[in-house]
Amino acid sequence: QWDKYLEEWEIAKIEWMGILTLEALLSLLKFNRI
Questions:
Q1: Which pLDDT does position 27 carry in this prediction?
Q2: Which residue range is the domain that position 11 belongs to?
Q3: How many structural domains is the chain composed of?
């Protein structure tokens, strides 16, 4: 059960990093347009 929890956490962490990276890139693009 613990292994399954860790596995899901790893996946969630990767998804979060992807979302944060996208947000950061979008912010940079908006900032550069100004």
A1: 95
A2: 1-32
A3: 1
